[in-house]
Write a structure and sequence with these properties.
- The structure is a single chain.
- This protein folds into 2 domains: 69 residues, Sulfite Reductase Hemoprotein, domain 2; 135 residues, Sulfite Reductase Hemoprotein, domain 1 (2-Layer Sandwich), CATH 3.30.413.
- The strands form 2 sheets. Strands 1-2-3-5-4 form a 5-stranded antiparallel sheet, with helices on one face. A 5-stranded mixed sheet has the order 6-7-8-9-10.
- A hairpin with a 6-residue loop joins strand 2 and strand 3.
- It is built from 6 helices and 10 strands, in the order E-E-E-H-E-E-H-E-H-E-E-E-E-H-H-H.
- The protein has 227 residues and is of the alpha+beta class.
- The structure holds iron/sulfur cluster (SF4).
- The site of iron/sulfur cluster has 13 residues, from loops.
C-alpha cells in the first residue's frame, strides 16, 4: 500500500504522487534556497510549484519514487510531528522593510516558528503576524495573531477563516517581544492541555468562553493588567 507520508511529503489525491511544503517563517527564502528548490524540482520531475496562503512553497505532483530524494535534497526528510501541528507562521515585512511597520514582524515570526514548528496540538494551528494595524497578515483570522503598534504587540487568540469564520479575541496589548512570545507559549500550552482532539482554537474559545480563559489563565499573567 502507498504510504500516506514520506518524510514531510504527503500523498496527493491521485494516490501515487506527493506534495511537500518548504520555506521559512513569513515566506522568507534566500536566493540560494530558491535555486535549490527549483533545481531539485527540475531534477526530479516535479510538475507544479505553488505559493500557498500560508507563505510556504508547495512542490506538488512529486513522483512517488522520488519523494524521499526530494525531501532529502530540501532538508525536510525528518517527518512531521505525529499529529496535528502548526501549519505556518504568515508574516508581513514589518519594520524590516515596510514604511508603515511599527514592530519587527519577521523576527517575531522566526521565533514563533522555532518554538512551535515541531510540536503537536489538538488541531492544526495557524499564526499571523502583522507589523501594524493595517493587518496585512490577517491576524484576526489566525489561531494566534499578532499586530504591532507604537506601544508593542497586540495578541489575539481563537481566530479562524474557512467554513465558520471567527474574529480572534484580543487577549493582551502593549507587549514587548519577550512578553508576546511568553503569552504565545502560555496560550498554546493551555490549548494543548484543554483542547479536544480535532478542535480548532476558534471552537475551543467558543466552548470554554473567553471569561473562563481569562480567569484560569490570563489573570495570572503578570504583564496583563487586571480588569
Ligand atoms: S501590516 Fe503594516 S507593516 Fe505589515 S506590510 Fe502591512 S502596512 Fe506594512
Amino acid at each position: 500500500m502507498t504510504p500516506k507520508t514520506v518524510g514531510d511529503a504527503v500523498l496527493q489525491r491521485d494516490g501515487t504522487s506527493y506534495g511537500l511544503m518548504v520555506g521559512g517563517a513569513g515566506g522568507v527564502v534566500t536566493p540560494d534556497e530558491l535555486e535549490r528548490i527549483a533545481r531539485t524540482a527540475r531534477e526530479h520531475g516535479v510538475p507544479l510549484i505553488k505559493l500557498t496562503r500560508g507563505q510556504r512553497i508547495a512542490l506538488l505532483g512529486i513522483p512517488g519514487e522520488k519523494a524521499v530524494a526530494v525531501a532529502r535534497a530540501l532538508g525536510v526528510d525528518e517527518g512531521r510531528p505525529g499529529g496535528p501541528c502548526m501549519k505556518y507562521v504568515a508574516a508581513c515585512p514589518g519594520t524590516a522593510v515596510c514604511r508603515w511597520g511599527m514592530q519587527d514582524a519577521l523576527a517575531l515570526a522566526r521565533e514563533l516558528e522555532e518554538r512551535f514548528g515541531t510540536r503537536t496540538f489538538p488541531s492544526k494551528l495557524k499564526i499571523g503576524v502583522s507589523g501594524c494595524a493595517r493587518n496585512c497578515s490577517s491576524s484576526f483570522f489566525s489561531d494566534l495573531g499578532f499586530i504591532g503598534t507604537g506601544r508593542g504587540w497586540m495578541v489575539f487568540f481563537g481566530g479562524n477563516g474557512a467554513r465558520r469564520p471567527r474574529n480572534a479575541d484580543l487577549v493582551a496589548s502593549n507587549l514587548t517581544d519577550d512578553q508576546a512570545l511568553d503569552l504565545a507559549d502560555r496560550l498554546v500550552n493551555y490549548y494543548a492541555s484543554h483542547g479536544r482532539s480535532g478542535e480548532r482554537t476558534a471552537r475551543f474559545v467558543e466552548r470554554l468562553g473567553l471569561e473562563t480563559i481569562r480567569s484560569e489563565l490570563l489573570r495570572f499573567v503578570p504583564y496583563i493588567p487586571l480588569e
